[in-house]
Amino acid sequence: MRQPVLSVAFAAIALALTGCAPERPDKAEQPGTITPTAAATADAAASAAASETPSPAASARAVTERTRNFEFEYAYPAAAAAIPELVVELEADLARQRRELARIAPRPEDGERPIPYARSVQWDVVTELPGWLSLSAAVYADTGGAHPNRWSQALLWDKAASKSRKATDLFVSGAALAEAIRVPFCRALNRQRAARRGEVVRSDSGEMFDECIDPTASTVILGSANGQQFDRIGVLIAPYEAGSYAEGDYEVTVPVTRAVMAVVKPQYRSVFALGR
Fold it and tell me: Domains in the chain, please, with CATH?
């Protein structure tokens, strides 16, 4: 699905669609250099004439910290930085993930320099509607194992309520959504599997990575083609969920259908439209 943004390019999660371990005190965090790109702010001493000038647009936020024990990166886009309440939530996630990395990172032993652990979190816009901002994050983690790990996070910001939601919160249940998209989702997933493996995939073969999976057990995101309503549902699937690590990530997109509309909560139906 994506590559790391630490030493190599980290591709953004953006479908064709145009927030976790318990927090524990970190008693051994190492000092490092943090280089943020903060949102632009107005000059408190601006003159009356200057106050009529539109405030500068919010800037994307990016933090990089490198110590002898760990390397940490966290970034989110300008669209998120423009919403103060969302910034509070993302900054809390940033702090939590940084503390967790610092807690588990190796410590120097007998004067030897440890191999640093690494984590990178890159948030990107999936789509923005008049009342909603749909975000997804690509997470990369290297804790010295056989290979790095990758997974996704998602966040759906409800502008009217000023709170974050999960995509599945807009449906009567996750199970109902899974049932509504299961057939097109499984077909699309198997097409991608077959393309990567060079052979037809049969879900009834008995092989673990041939069976279909519960789409709502992976990361669900909502997207839009018209910028007014959600008409696409994306599923971001990490390695080992639908295939071997060598197969990488899978991203499956299905349209909003009448079956999907039937399981949307009544208060959110106006936010959805049939897709193609």
Answer: 59-165 (3.30.565.40), 168-271 (3.90.640)
